[in-house]
Amino acid sequence: MEGEHPENLVYGRNAVLELLREKPESVEKIYFQFNTSHPKLKEIIITARRQKIVTGKARLEKLSLIAGTTKHQGVAALISTVSYYTVEELLAAPRNSAPLLVVLQGLDDPHNIGAIIRTAEAVAADGVVLVEGKGAPVNAVVHKASAGALSHMRVAKVKSLVRCLELLHREGIQVLATDMEAETNYTDADFRKATAIVLGAEGSGLAPEAMEFCDRVVRIPMAGCVESLNVSVSAGVMLYEAMRQRLS
């Protein structure tokens, strides 16, 4: 929660409730006080969860720090400063003749999201796709970690990862995932094709139902003692292999 700025928040029960009614797509996350006995606070929480908006509890002192005021009435909503695209929009006007996308299932660390967006922009990928209500919100920490790339990279949001992968299949885009147990090295995949690299959450990896929609699962070889790479490093390895193949 550290690093989020008050100008990106709406606080107060009436203000947050109105925001949920009129512009729910702009809300990244709602923080509320542990004691939620107030009827409007309960209505806010129910409405947010119905709309699959991420919510989190915060102690009074922490909520005041997030909101930048003690007059928050027990609730604060983090507002996105990003204009989101649809996947269809990303594909309708690609940067590359063979589109290159990164799809994130739901990363919990905003630093990882920012780092992936930064690398995606460095290789001129066509977009990064996030799943609504999953993982960390796109907040000031993501902006900082992206080192300005978030202002240039197109970011899309989808309600369902599986439906997103189904759409990519219909559009003729190969879906690649990584797994330590895969038999094929990532360098053997053909990144010159239209490609979507799908990455799972830290720790748990990609959901089994999403794996079923992957055309190919590849591994990144490991020679040392560590068992796996950080997800943003894995994304970097895959993206730069895509750029290497395409430039050659």
TrEMBL record:
Alphabetical keyword list: Methyltransferase, Transferase
One Gene Ontology term from the biological process aspect of the record: RNA processing
GO molecular-function term, one example from the UniProt record: RNA methyltransferase activity
One Pfam family matching this protein: SpoU_methylase
Keyword Disulfide bond: no
Transmembrane segments: none
UniProt xrefs under InterPro entries: Alpha/beta_knot_MTases (IPR029028), Ribosomal_eL30-like_sf (IPR029064), rRNA_MeTrfase_TrmH (IPR004441), SpoU_MeTrfase (IPR001537), SpoU_subst-bd (IPR013123), tRNA_m1G_MTases_N (IPR029026)
Entry keyword annotation includes Phosphoprotein: no
Residues annotated as domain RNA 2-O ribose methyltransferase substrate binding: 9-85
GO CC terms: cytosol
Stated name of the protein: RNA methyltransferase TrmH, group 3
Species this chain originates from: Chlorobium luteolum (strain DSM 273 / BCRC 81028 / 2530) (Pelodictyon luteolum)
